[in-house]
Design goal:
Largest sheet: 3 strands, antiparallel
Number of helices: 2
Radius of gyration: 28 Å
Distance between the termini: 71 Å
Shape: elongated
Strand order of the largest sheet: 1-2-3
C-alpha cells in the first residue's frame, strides 16, 4: 500500500503589501510517497496573487491552509499523487528493462575453491 504525504518546504513572503505585512507570495511544496520498500516524490512551487479578502497573519498560517491555496491555484493534487504512485509502481514492475544482449555469451559462473586448512609441518 502506497502512503502519500504533502509538505510545504518553504514560503516566500513580501514584507509589505499595501497595509499588510509578511504576505505569502510563493509556496514550495513536495508530495512524497512510499510503500515501505520503494519511494517517489514530486515537488514544485506555487505563486499567489496579493490577498483581496480575508487575510491570515503569517504567524497564524497552517500547512493545511497553504496546501489548500496551492490546490486552488493550479497544483493538481490528484495528478501529482498519481505521478508519485506511478514512480513507485514502475520501481516494483519496471516498464522497461535492459536484459543482456542475446549474441553476447554469458560468462560461466566463477567457482571459488574452498580454502583448505593446513597445519604447518614441523621444521626439520
Amino acid at each position: 500500500m502506497i502512503t502519500l504525504s504533502w509538505i510545504i518546504e518553504r514560503l516566500l513572503v513580501k514584507p509589505t503589501e499595501g497595509s499588510l505585512t509578511d504576505v505569502v507570495i510563493t509556496a514550495d511544496w513536495r508530495c512524497n510517497g512510499t510503500d515501505e520498500t520503494y519511494s517517489g516524490t514530486c515537488y514544485g512551487s506555487c505563486s499567489f496573487a496579493p490577498p483581496s479578502g480575508e487575510f491570515t497573519p503569517y504567524e497564524d498560517l497552517t500547512e493545511a491552509q497553504v496546501l489548500g491555496w496551492c490546490y486552488a491555484n493550479g497544483v493538481d493534487k490528484t495528478a501529482i499523487e498519481a505521478n508519485v504512485s506511478a514512480q513507485i509502481e514502475n520501481q516494483i514492475n519496471p516498464p522497461i528493462i535492459a536484459p543482456p544482449l542475446p549474441w553476447v555469451p554469458v560468462p560461466p559462473p566463477v567457482v571459488v575453491a574452498p580454502i583448505e586448512s593446513f597445519v604447518d609441518a614441523p621444521a626439520a
